[in-house]
Amino acid sequence: MGKVTGFLEIDRQVHKYQPASDRIRHFREFTLPMSDKEVEKQAARCMDCGIPYCHGPTGCPIHNQIPDWNDLVYNGDWDGAIRNLHSTNNFPEFTGRICPAPCEEACTLNLEDIPVAIKTVEQAIADKAYETGHIRPYPPERKTGKRVAIIGSGPAGMAAAQQLGRAGHDVHVYERESRPGGLMRYGIPDFKIEKHYIDRRIEQMQGEGVTFHCGVNVGVDKKVSELLAEYDAVLYCGGSETPRPANIPGDDLSGVYDAMPYLVQQNRRVGGEPIQSVAWPSHPIIASGQHVVVVGGGDTASDCIGTAFRQGAVRVTQLDIRPQPPEKEDKLAVWPYWATKMRTSSSQAEGAEREFQVATLEFIGEDGQLTGVRCCEVDEKRKPIAGTEFVIRADLAFIAIGFAGPAADSVMKELDGEIKVVTDSRRSKNVEANDRDYRTSVDRFYAAGDVRRGQSLVVWAIREGRQAARSIDEALMGSTVLPR
Q: Is 352 within 8 Å of 327 (Cβ atoms)?
């Protein structure tokens, strides 16, 4: 796999970034691409380890055959590498940009903190495939005559649509927003993934026979019952969109928002669309000249930080109730699993002030307008420590503490009502379906992605979309050649 002695001879290198002072002036991607030769050298570091934990189940959820395509890249066979990568992953240009790379955590070389630069190589393979024209429509040789509807055009819906379209089915994707892509288009900022990558995939899929119906809010504009009557199977890939309630006093003040309306607005601005969204209506939110506080420690919080800096925020403070993690994990205790350790995102590195082991007690304001956030330190059980209270000035505050299930006002309203689909026992009310055939309690109705498993990664959504497509194809045709 790669060069047998490569890991001994070649230092780990990954994409470099534009300086923070430059990149906060725009919303474009800011990674500096490596040359083909540099990428081939990084692929050469794959060390032919006995058990490649990188490609599953501990590493890659979609089981990318990482050692194989590293070897192909090292030998200059870029066409072979993209064919191999596409055999497991429909959209490597997405995952190569926004996946946190659990594969690198699981890499054997990570025992020495020098894992193979898997994510960098993956992105390079996908980008090279576009340059060489490899990513083009691959329409099916024969049509099956079966029709499948997919609700939601996020990564799960897109992956399922492409797989089912290539199997010969007539696939129709229903998206409530004006353009496909789901929260990958409207939730993830352009500085992490520019949306022309989504557009190119949509164009490819349309060339393969997939039809997209945008501006159709299923459950409102078109009933799920109508889809079940018109199609041979219906797959629900609506995502996890209900913000987790923070229950912080003062969250009704002007200036306090959930994270998603803010991120969606800015993505729509960058995309040249009106800022009003079907799912996330709000008046304009701009951080220019503002003191911003972000409550939460995850990726969504980090996206708010990067967006605020680009809009011209004066100061951004991030509050995380968790203790500050160690700089380095105990490898023998956690490898090859994802480790809890100090990580600094590119957005945090742009100048955010981070407060750990701090609880948000109250949003305070004057005349209905936010002026500050009252906080305190907490102990290991997240209980307030007496005498540690302090106030942070804030003109804007964003709550980014996760999502608690699918939106309740459209599809789920109908599913809970007349259709009566079974949901899980958690408060999130995700649609109940197993991860083998993705069938729900309603005949011919399937569910995949975050609407089934809860909030998760894009790579998990792609996996579930692919696996649900296989299950649907098998149910419709009696057998399937689609990979699991």
A: no
Strands 390-393 and 369-377: antiparallel
CA-to-CA distance for 149 and 89, rounded, in angstroms?
22
pLDDT grade for 2, boundaries at 50, 70 and 90: low
Task: Give me the residue label for tokens 């725009």.
Answer: 26
Tell me the pLDDT tens digit for each residue of 255-298.
999 999 999 999 999 999 999 888 888 889 999 999 999 999 99
| Strands 358-366 and 369-377, sheet pairing | antiparallel
Residue 470: pLDDT band with limits 50, 70, 90: very high
pLDDT for position 417: 83
What's the rounded Cα separation, in Å, for the pair 158 and 164? 10
Other residues' Cβ atoms within 10 Å of the Cβ of residue 145: 10
The two structure tokens encoding residue 264? 């969606």
CA 220 to chain centre: 26
Supply the pTM of this predicted model. Answer: 0.95
Angle in degrees, 0-180, between the axes of helices 78-86 and 118-131, rounded to the nearest 10:
110
Rounded to whole angstroms, what are the CA distances from 308 to 257, 258, 344, 418?
A: 13, 14, 17, 43
- Percentages helix, strand, coil for the chain (3-state, rounded to 5) are 35, 15, 50
pLDDT at 279 (0 to 100): 83
- What does the chain come to in residues? 484
Q: What is the pLDDT of residues 238-257, one digit of tens each?
A: 999 999 999 999 999 999 99
**SS3 state at 362:** strand
Average pLDDT rounded to a whole number, residues 5-10: 94
Give CA–CA dist 86/133, Å, rounded. 14
DSSP H stretches of helix in 313-449: 331-334, 411-414
Q: Which amino acid, residue 473?
A: D
Q: How far apart, in Å, do the first and last CA atoms of the chain sit? A: 24
Q: What are phi and psi of 195, to 5 degrees?
A: -80, -10
Confirm if 299 and 314 have CB atoms less than 8 A apart. Answer: no
Q: For tokens 């991860």, what's the residue?
A: 435
pLDDT greater at residue 425 or residue 24: 24
Other residues' Cβ atoms within 10 Å of the Cβ of residue 299: 17
**Interhelix angle 196-207/155-166, nearest 10 degrees:** 20
Is residue 187 within 8 Å of 402, Cβ to Cβ? no
